[in-house]
Write a structure and sequence with these properties.
The structure is a homodimer.
Chain A: H1 7-14, H2 18-25, H3 33-45, E1 62-67, H4 73-88, E2 92-97, H5 101-114, E3 120-123, H6 129-137, E4 142-145, E5 156-160, H7 162-175, E6 181-185, H8 191-206, E7 216-218, H9 223-234, E8 242-244, H10 248-260, E9 270-275, E10 288-291, H11 294-309, E11 318-321, E12 324-326
Parallel strand pairs in A: 1-2, 1-3, 3-4, 4-5, 5-11, 6-7, 6-8, 8-9, 9-10
Antiparallel strand pairs in A: 10-12
Helix pairs in contact in A: 1-2, 1-3, 4-11, 7-8, 9-10
Protein name (chains A, B): LacI family DNA-binding transcriptional regulator
Organism (chains A, B): Cryptosporangium japonicum
InterPro entries (chains A, B): HTH_LacI, LacI/GalR-like_sensor, Lambda_DNA-bd_dom_sf, Peripla_BP_I
């Protein structure tokens, strides 16, 4: 490993005190603007990374987990995977929910730096480039799980094979004979939503079938989003005979819409979820769904973060863990008439 | 507020250095045994409480949450309540699952003290008296949610009205005409289990009915525990006509056992859960259950902890939030034959 640039070397080169360099690093405002720029340019040129204090690696060391959907079993399974690995490594895990984007960027960053967190895992909650850059300067590595957008190539990320999952769910329904398959994505801007929809389309293309029109909706991954989307599809003149619901909670909303419209699942409406949360096997009918290894995704992200904290390089910045279709009782051939 | 004893006063009285007092406070071993005893006696007599360093109260300050059932939606709802309040107060929340009791007591305590955590909330995970005493000496307050045993009177605790919940569930089933009501508790040693069972018995007594024999089981609050308990009751010569399942996940296990034994819910077997987790309204039939305000219990515990951290006294060390019966479709009168 090349010798690291020290803060003292930066101070000498910039002809300022060590404490001034430190202030720039820590984003304090009481530094003259041209001094700040000169110091920052040197920090950037020399690729300075803040040295983690030795005492941070012992008892009391922390990593952060920021999670958008802390209020769903989905987020919980990721959390348990992260916690397990952090605990084994003797690291305390600071958990934050995203209450608003503004809160995440400014206040969270200040707190994270103040408590000397070793690194952070971000779930469904991307950082703006400025925040990412500040973390980079402080030498605080991050790992993204299910990034909002495709993460930049230099950001470590862990996800599931969403394209393959969307493909498998749709292929299963096509195989049963469905030709008008509705689909409910998550929020439209999410990378995982786009990958699942791409899988849905690719399965149609592979079977030589046209993509049905007018039966694509976007939801919020929660029960109410699935309910609204399914209601709007079931009231169509030509409603779908099957719905790929995009999440298990969406699927529960689809079940409720089916009850409201008097459509029996699966004989009059097939439903496929995504996630395989624990309740998927307890519902009636038990839910056919695409399983994501959420616990393992959390654990993998945590192990990746530990490697980055330890200064190791990664074989691949981006990892996708396999999804698998779990066929239960909510899918059947469409009615023949 | 009376002036606090300082560490320097203790050192003078004990005729030792400040650093020796500090070592005793922090549990270091390199202090002669009789010196340690002399210092400790003075610390106890003067009611010394470690002063929290001012910098801990600013950015980067932490509180701890230790949770036994991190792998269930139950724990998640508590977590979201705690997180919301901690976040509003600008405190980072360190979340630990209990992987083993030994790990909790020793390693967790070391880490908590090393990271200067302001206080801790313990969910279903009591501390042994020694650990509690060490936290007290360090001036680290704790709040217990659903303590394993009744917490000592000087420990702040938050729970739900488990007795009233068990009573309401049983009264509802008795009112429908059931006379042989099975009951599945959580782990036998838990205070909440005992309170719910006491409610079950009291409802029988209030109705002038004998407590049925041979239909009490203990579970683990998870699906498999409910399944096993229900199987063993349904294979009795005189099986119950209704089961108060003790948790919603237990109730899902009871549903599965009912399917295995070909007993329709609710016409051949009524089922009542406890918790009202989100899936309770998605199951078929939708589950009648006793709602616990889990999110609010977490938030209340966090607010209580903040008051203790701020040096305020509590009106009551123990708080019970109200449960309420939510009647859905899993309960009905027993078959008349």
């Amino acid at each position: 490993m090349p010798a690291r640039t020290t803060i003292a070397e930066i101070a000498r080169s910039a002809d300022v005190s060590v404490s001034t360099v430190s202030k720039v690093l820590n984003g304090h405002s009481d530094v003259a603007e041209d001094t700040r720029r000169r110091v920052q340019r040197l920090l950037d040129e020399r690729g300075y990374r803040k040295r983690r204090a030795a005492h941070h690696r012992g008892h009391g060391a922390l990593v952060d987990l920021v999670i958008n959907n802390l209020d769903s079993a989905w987020g919980l399974e990721i959390l348990t995977g992260v916690e397990e690995v952090a605990e084994s490594a003797g690291l305390g895990l600071v958990v934050s929910a995203v209450h608003s984007r503004a809160a995440l960027t400014r206040r969270w960053l200040d707190s994270l730096l103040a408590r000397g967190s070793q690194g952070a895992i971000l779930v469904l909650s991307d950082l703006d480039p400025g925040t990412r850059e500040q973390l980079r300067r402080h030498g605080t590595p991050i790992v993204v799980i299910d990034g909002v957008s495709q993460p930049p190539p230099d950001v470590a990320s862990v996800g599931a094979t969403n394209f393959a999952g969307g493909y498998a769910a749709t292929e299963h329904l096509i195989g049963l004979g469905h030709r008008r398959i509705g689909v409910i994505g998550g929020p439209e801007q999410l990378a995982c939503t786009r990958a699942r929809l791409a899988g849905y389309r690719a399965a149609h293309e592979a079977a030589g079938l046209p993509i049905p029109r007018g039966v694509l909706r976007y939801g919020n991954f929660y029960h109410d989003g699935g309910l609204r989307a399914a209601q709007s599809m079931l009231e169509l003149d030509e409603p779908p005979t099957a719905i790929f619901a995009g999440s298990d909670m969406h699927a529960m909303g689809v079940y409720e819409a089916a009850r409201q419209f008097g459509r029996h699942v699966p004989s009059e409406l097939s439903v496929v979820g995504f996630d395989d949360l624990n309740f998927a096997s307890w519902t009636a009918p038990a839910l056919t769904t695409v399983r994501q290894p959420l616990h393992e995704m959390g654990a993998t992200a945590a192990r990746t973060l530990l490697r980055l904290i330890g200064g190791e390089s990664l074989d691949s910045a981006s990892l996708e863990l396999a999804t698998s279709l779990v066929v239960r009782d909510s899918t059947a051939p469409p009615e023949s008439d």
